[in-house]
Amino acid sequence: MTPHEPVAPGASPLAGPGTPEKTKLTIGFIALTDCASLVMAHELGLFRKHGLDVTLSRQPSWAAIRDRLSLGELDAAHLLYGMVYGVHLGIGGPRQDMAILMGLNHNGQGIVLSRQLRELGAVDGPSLKKVIARGGRRYTFAQTFPTGTHAMWLYYWLAAAGIHPLRDVNVITVPPPQMVANMRAGNMDGYCVGEPWGGARAIQEGIGFTATTTQAIWRNHPEKVLGTTRAFVERHPNTARAMIRAVLEASRYIDIMANRDRVAGIISAAGYVDAPAGLIAARLRGEYENGLGRKWQDPDCMKFFNDGEVNYPYLSHGMWFLTQQRRWGLLQQDVDYLAVAREVNRIDLYAEVARTMGIAVPQSPLKTERLFDGVVWDPSAPQAYVESFAIRA
Fold first, then answer.
1. Under DSSP, is residue 143 helix (H, G, I), strand (E, B) or coil?
2. How far is CA 161 from CA 107, 133, 143, 156, 224, in A?
3. What's the predicted TM-score (pTM) here?
4. Rounded distance, CA 328 to CA 13, Å?
5. Computed over its alpha carbons, how large is the radius of gyration of the chain?
6. What is the pLDDT of residues 328-379, one digit of tens each?
7. Which end of the chain is more exposed for a tag (fewer CB within 10 A), N or C?
8. Which CATH superfamily is domain 109-217 in?
């Protein structure tokens, strides 16, 4: 099989490192476009191909996924990157040793502002700061989980505009599929979430517009991961390898652009994302509009494979989320950022599977990044990075 060849259901298994110790699995997910690689691994028969009998279980919230994974009711899950670290360190709930097996996607989230804010003149970060500074009332913004990716994108974007997310506005937690309904009801003035509940649905319903995409904040940023508990990996390492292999094949299939309309049609079903296929497909194809009259073809739309770059669990990505949790006071003190990332990100298992599939593995698990405000993330100096921000808890 070539790197860009679709995988046919029922194809004979590739040689693996061993028979899965546990074959009957329940994998949790949230109704978001970026659950696609798990859905397609199931729908294309790839889990079955690699010896796994998987039930996909849609969950109502990230908190529900966290709790059911910790209790063993879920074997693995579609997870927010930073959420895994929060659980591992016991931030905001019981501590549980966690494991990230691989990345599931890059890009594809958005920060949405309400129609009412637009009418007041807020269309981006700087103009939002002016509206907030005028006073009159306190504005409310939503994210999906306190230690998750959406909270970090929202906080970073607000702070880059000079808005302190913990002092100048209210921030609430709302599950992804409930964002649009809550905005419609007037419960918040803006939010950060993944597609299709980001810009696409808000624009369709006329309740808001896309102030920025997250790929504009950080090009090819890490987003969701396939995660489980450390205990599960220790008991079932071959099962973990089989999951990685199946999801890698699905990820490769989705990143063939000709397949994306089919993917959108499948994941739009009531049991998965439960949203119009056309809305999902347009963003998967990179067809964007912001609700303010601008339309563009985004080369940095949601990616699921990108020659393996999406899926490799860089230690520096995990470390970045830790620095932001420290920045905003979720993490009460500095930790050994690299050591924690080594505990969580199973680069050993991922690299072993990827190499047997002919997928490139980076030479280093650390890399330097530059975000939209020009600030460079250097994983060799995480504490200095945290302290470099003027706006923090």
1. strand
2. 21, 12, 18, 9, 26
3. 0.94
4. 46
5. 20
6. 999 999 999 999 999 999 999 999 999 999 999 999 999 999 999 999 999 9
7. N
8. Periplasmic binding protein-like II (3.40.190.10)
The rounded distance, in Å, linking the Cα atoms of 387 and 382 is 9
> What crossing angle do the helices spanning 237-254 and 347-356 adopt, rounded to 10°?
60
Residue 135's Cβ-count burial label (10 Å; 0-12, 13-18, 19+) is: exposed
- Please tell me the distance from the alpha carbon of residue 152 to that of residue 82, in angstroms, as a whole number: 8
Q: Is 158 helix (H, G, I), strand (E, B) or coil?
A: helix
User: 102: which strand partners?
Assistant: 226
As a whole number of angstroms, the distance between CA 178 and CA 208 comes to 15
Name the residue among 240, 87, 77, 214 with its Cα closest to residue 143. 214
Q: How many CB atoms lie within 10 A of CB 265?
A: 13
Yes or no: is domain 24-106+222-284+302-378 CATH 3.40.190.10? Answer: yes
Strands 190-194, 140-143: pairing is parallel
